[in-house]
Predict the 3D structure of the following.
Amino acid sequence: METVQGSKNKQSLQGTVKSDKMDKTIVVEITMRKLHPLYKKYVTRSKSIKAHDEKNEAHEGDTVRVVECRPLSRDKRWMLAEILERAK
């Protein structure tokens, strides 16, 4: 698989593929753990983003890395960079 080459200041995120039902599009769930400033307890936050998958390579359950890109549609601003781990 080829990696996406880009400038050094593009943001990169890692997440799990939630859905691959659309053509050339995957929905990736990004999970973040943040320390609460007052209670000093870790809070889990998650968000879903749509990413462009040109060859329809990623499937549900895969761990992937996505990088930001120019707007490709109304919702897509991310592109699949690589598949880190396949679903079992």
Remarks:
- The longest strand covers residues 25-35.
